[in-house]
Amino acid sequence: MVKIAPSILSANFSKLADEIKDVEKAGADYIHIDVMDGHFVPNITMGPLVVEAIRPITKLPLDVHLMIENPDQFIESFVKAGADYITVHVEACKHLHRTIQYIRSFGVKAGVVLNPATPVEMIKHVLKDIDMVLLMTVNPGFGGQRFIMSVLPKIKQVKELIDQEGLNIEIEVDGGINPETAKLCTDAGANVLVAGSAIYNHEDRKKAINEIRKTL
Ligand SMILES: O=C(CO)[C@H](O)[C@H](O)COP(=O)(O)O
Ligand SMILES: [Co+2]
């Protein structure tokens, strides 16, 4: 079963609680939270205080995507704020294996993220230690960008590696996911689809989620 994770990056922040309840009612599986620090990516968004405020609003797992330098420094704060998944960029971690162990030491699911230009080889050594691989299908930093087609073979590559090893790891894709691109990703092996603008730019979120689901 493919999961849909609306990214609140494209939500109306002045009524964030309603925006989250709306997608939960509409059949979302996770809430995707994009954390940006203005260093790792050229944009600044939200931090642990926002995650803490969101936690009581929804029963859905909070999928926290850290686009920040030196993520270790903030992991405990995001755990305390209520994150269920914490994903860190391979490109931002000096000691990736250590960071993953640190996330898991709190009983939280750990994921690794690859930018479009980063090869899959970078995560081979940690596959047995993670719960999720997140493949960026845009360059991180902004919502509403165009899907990068050249990431599709990487999704397949990750799926094959996971299957070869008999592991139970979610494959999430993030960026430019919409009714045109979703099935390309699930056919390649993705089972979690992050969608920001494709859901939040529509008045009817249930319809927007169903439009994606019915293509799969
Ligand atoms: O991580 C992200 C950007 O760095 C966002 O999750 C992503 O861009 C979602 O937005 P959209 O679906 O509009 O592309
Ligand atoms: Co994201």
Automatic annotation (TrEMBL):
<feature type="binding site">
    <location>
        <position position="176"/>
    </location>
    <ligand>
        <name>substrate</name>
    </ligand>
</feature>
<comment type="function">
    <text>Catalyzes the reversible epimerization of D-ribulose 5-phosphate to D-xylulose 5-phosphate.</text>
</comment>
<feature type="binding site">
    <location>
        <begin position="174"/>
        <end position="176"/>
    </location>
    <ligand>
        <name>substrate</name>
    </ligand>
</feature>
<comment type="similarity">
    <text>Belongs to the ribulose-phosphate 3-epimerase family.</text>
</comment>
<feature type="binding site">
    <location>
        <position position="174"/>
    </location>
    <ligand>
        <name>a divalent metal cation</name>
    </ligand>
</feature>
<dbReference type="InterPro" id="IPR026019">
    <property type="entry name" value="Ribul_P_3_epim"/>
</dbReference>
<comment type="pathway">
    <text>Carbohydrate degradation.</text>
</comment>
<feature type="binding site">
    <location>
        <position position="7"/>
    </location>
    <ligand>
        <name>substrate</name>
    </ligand>
</feature>
<dbReference type="GO" id="GO:0019323">
    <property type="term" value="P:pentose catabolic process"/>
</dbReference>
<keyword id="KW-0170">Cobalt</keyword>
<feature type="binding site">
    <location>
        <position position="32"/>
    </location>
    <ligand>
        <name>a divalent metal cation</name>
    </ligand>
</feature>
<keyword id="KW-0862">Zinc</keyword>
<feature type="binding site">
    <location>
        <begin position="141"/>
        <end position="144"/>
    </location>
    <ligand>
        <name>substrate</name>
    </ligand>
</feature>
<keyword id="KW-0479">Metal-binding</keyword>
<dbReference type="GO" id="GO:0005737">
    <property type="term" value="C:cytoplasm"/>
</dbReference>
<dbReference type="GO" id="GO:0004750">
    <property type="term" value="F:D-ribulose-phosphate 3-epimerase activity"/>
</dbReference>
<protein>
    <recommendedName>
        <fullName>Ribulose-phosphate 3-epimerase</fullName>
        <ecNumber>5.1.3.1</ecNumber>
    </recommendedName>
</protein>
<dbReference type="InterPro" id="IPR000056">
    <property type="entry name" value="Ribul_P_3_epim-like"/>
</dbReference>
<feature type="active site" description="Proton acceptor">
    <location>
        <position position="34"/>
    </location>
</feature>
<dbReference type="Pfam" id="PF00834">
    <property type="entry name" value="Ribul_P_3_epim"/>
</dbReference>
<dbReference type="InterPro" id="IPR013785">
    <property type="entry name" value="Aldolase_TIM"/>
</dbReference>
<keyword id="KW-0413">Isomerase</keyword>
<feature type="binding site">
    <location>
        <position position="65"/>
    </location>
    <ligand>
        <name>substrate</name>
    </ligand>
</feature>
<keyword id="KW-0464">Manganese</keyword>
<keyword id="KW-0119">Carbohydrate metabolism</keyword>
<dbReference type="GO" id="GO:0046872">
    <property type="term" value="F:metal ion binding"/>
</dbReference>
<feature type="active site" description="Proton donor">
    <location>
        <position position="174"/>
    </location>
</feature>
<feature type="binding site">
    <location>
        <position position="34"/>
    </location>
    <ligand>
        <name>a divalent metal cation</name>
    </ligand>
</feature>
<feature type="binding site">
    <location>
        <position position="65"/>
    </location>
    <ligand>
        <name>a divalent metal cation</name>
    </ligand>
</feature>
<feature type="binding site">
    <location>
        <begin position="196"/>
        <end position="197"/>
    </location>
    <ligand>
        <name>substrate</name>
    </ligand>
</feature>
<dbReference type="InterPro" id="IPR011060">
    <property type="entry name" value="RibuloseP-bd_barrel"/>
</dbReference>
<dbReference type="GO" id="GO:0006098">
    <property type="term" value="P:pentose-phosphate shunt"/>
</dbReference>
